[in-house]
Design goal:
By secondary structure, the protein is mainly α. It has 11 helices and no strands. The relative contact order is 0.09.
């Protein structure tokens, strides 16, 4: 019932902390998602900011190895990606965190075709630009395979190496040919 004390206590306000309604920023659901994962997934920047202030751990992976940064990256939530990166004194550490298949946030930005997010990640990535997934593919391999010229150019300008081979020994040119369907 609207206006009842019980209903008004359940509606979050900017002054509420996660603990004030009995929840914890460290609780997780059956998928291994914390409230921070959910806020990142759905692009709720203000909720994310409150959770970070309350001590939520932005480096915790879910049951598939996805961190809040990975989820925000895949969804293209650039403001959430920015907030997560600027809230960490060493943002390259969270950019370099990998999923269970070895994919970094850079890999995921390329897969999701998110050039704006990739640009932000590259600003904070350091040497992570050449990170390889469990098949030995870099984000540049993936961009070439999916024929994403804009992302290829961004990665090369950020220092992606052109001579890295995947774990099958295939050179980058092979990935580029696959992307062009040659």
């Amino acid at each position: 019932m609207i206006g009842s004390p019980t209903a008004s206590m359940m509606i979050p306000t900017p002054r509420m902390t996660p603990e004030s309604n009995g929840s914890s920023p460290r609780s997780f659901d059956s998928h291994g998602h914390t409230a921070l994962h959910r806020a990142a997934l759905y692009g709720h920047e203000s909720v994310l900011a409150v959770l970070l202030q309350a001590g939520a751990d932005h480096t915790l992976p879910d049951s598939t190895g996805l961190t809040p940064l990975h989820l925000a990256t895949k969804q293209g939530h650039i403001s959430v990606v920015n907030l997560l990166l600027t809230s960490d004194p060493q943002p390259w550490n969270i950019v370099s965190q990998v999923t269970h298949t070895g994919e970094s946030a850079l890999h995921l930005a390329v897969q999701a075709k998110q050039p704006a997010v990739l640009r932000v990640l590259l600003e904070h990535s350091g040497r992570v630009v050449n990170a390889q997934d469990w098949l030995g593919r870099t984000a540049l391999h993936m961009a070439c395979e999916s024929n994403q010229q804009e992302l290829v150019e961004m990665l090369v300008q950020a220092g992606a190496q052109l001579d890295i081979r995947d774990f099958e020994g295939q050179p980058l040119l092979h990935s580029a040919c696959m992307g062009a369907r040659l």
